[in-house]
């Protein structure tokens, strides 16, 4: 174990997360080249923090992994001395998110006011991202004050808005966003639909977070987009008739194929969950495009998601606090497939890896703002992130997909930075569900007056 490794500290904000913590702990345990680091977990919820701490302690002890483990409820203490700051915090919480959606639906905004063109993914707050923006800026502000050399890794949503906001407010901070949607989408397409060997696939994808399209697709070194065309022509209808897509399998949906036909590139991962209102007007429409549950973002899908959240919470509780359960049996020591720890290993140990990350644009997609954050293939080695040259981007990707999506980001961030309730209302004037200014004002008022949004109400005046 080198002195360099002993000096590395990973800080996890929102360390009580049920979504990512088990995967991160597994990947740390299985990445021997970073053994000896300090891992500091931070959360304002002391029970969740204790749960993650106990799970980590058990996991590392069972595998005899030398990790210096710490916990704190103090954000600044966590960030101090860290080489990497991972933000997993979802400050609004899933229960409160559901209440907000129900409030919006009472005013005619199906699936909430954040559901809009190219942002139909539930739990991706743009207009209502106030708490997420506050957390991200607090973290960035502390880093700018005491730890400018650290990397900020943004994982919790909305990745596009929070990373763009932080990059613009603190342009000298080193920041990336991480999302597993594109790699997971490629694997679904290759293995479940095309029945090909993933090891022989070469692919490239680019866009904005949750708005990512396949720009290169090769099999055995040769262009293989025609294999997607053949599957659509000969097998897709049979597939949709016999297979019920589970949550997060929207890459295989009728909507994904329709987007491919419209825009010329295949949508990956969470991209297929979005699109325009064509796919999302009501549950009946969603069921046609996404199958019997209408996709994970429908009201049916939301119910399934909440049940899965409860199961994940219960599993974490048992694995952490039940002495008769081994953590490594609950979460077998197999790499998760996430690349958060891979990124850290590449930076610390100069191991070059190709991965999909959210990075400052700086010309990657030249027709989008240079200070926006784009999702793109990059090579990471040490402190250097080298974007891959992008190919095969049709003009209509900008005009019909990325421009509308980045406009949502710009409106949400402008309203947040201005603290303007009127700009929130004005943003809803672009929404086809808005029939009057009074309707928009009433829904904003109801959301701001929810008891857990008192801080948000004070901000937007």
UniProtKB/TrEMBL annotation:
Tell me which InterPro entries the record gives. Answer: GH4_Enzyme_sf, Glyco_hydro_4, Glyco_hydro_4_C, Lactate_DH/Glyco_Ohase_4_C, NAD(P)-bd_dom_sf
Keyword entries, A-Z? Carbohydrate metabolism, Glycosidase, Hydrolase, Manganese, Metal-binding, NAD
Question: What processes in GO biological process is this protein linked to?
Answer: carbohydrate metabolic process
Name of one Pfam family that matches:
Glyco_hydro_4C
Domain Glycosyl hydrolase family 4 C-terminal stretches: 206-434
Molecular-function GO term, any one: oxidoreductase activity, acting on the CH-OH group of donors, NAD or NADP as acceptor
Q: Belongs to which family?
A: Belongs to the glycosyl hydrolase 4 family.
Protein name per Swiss-Prot or TrEMBL: Glycoside hydrolase family 4
